[in-house]
């Protein structure tokens, strides 16, 4: 978040009832995002929104949330971070619309839908250079693939924050194009048809033998 207007919109979004719960575990490595916020705080009007699932009946969720809030206080970034629990689809869409970039912190994660959603929303993605993001994100084109540390995330975010608006917009456009070309329903349908067309002649050839 960069502007007062955006923060006011975020305040309105937080008043909307949440409808989805996606449990947030320690393996998501959100600590790195908080260290990133500490790294970029000086001289930059940037605000980190930590948006993830929260189940009040899950002990691990409660403990981890308390740890993250405590770390934000320890790093002296409490006024620069908002913890948004179990955001609804409406909230997520608003966040995507308002944000400068999306930071995806899990290491060795599977495919991961968040980078896809962010790129389709024309937002650059900062993620670890492990797991699914290696396939979905094109480094220096649709976002940045980094070592899984707060300092590395911070450098990538500063790169985006200090780039001309046109450059950031071009990165967002490249992300949308990549999703439509490689990861849309039409792309999967096309790939499946090509595979079937390849398999059918091979099967017919074996039947003639």
Kindly describe this structure.
The chain is mainly alpha-helical. 55% of the residues lie in helices and 10% in strands. The protein contains 9 helices and 5 strands. The longest helix has 24 residues, at 185-208.
Mean pLDDT: 83
Query: If strands are numbered along the chain, what order do they take across the biggest sheet?
Result: 3-4-5
| Class of secondary structure makeup | mainly alpha
CATH topology: Rossmann fold
Rg calculated over all Cα atoms? 20 Å
Biggest β-sheet strands, sense, barrel: 3 strands, parallel
State the name of the first-level CATH class. Alpha Beta
How many domains? The number is: 1
Which regions contain 5 or more consecutive residues with pLDDT less than 50? 12-25
The amount of helix comes to: 55-70%
How many H/I helical runs?
9
Question: What is the 3D form?
Answer: globular
What separation lies between the terminal Cα atoms? 65 Å
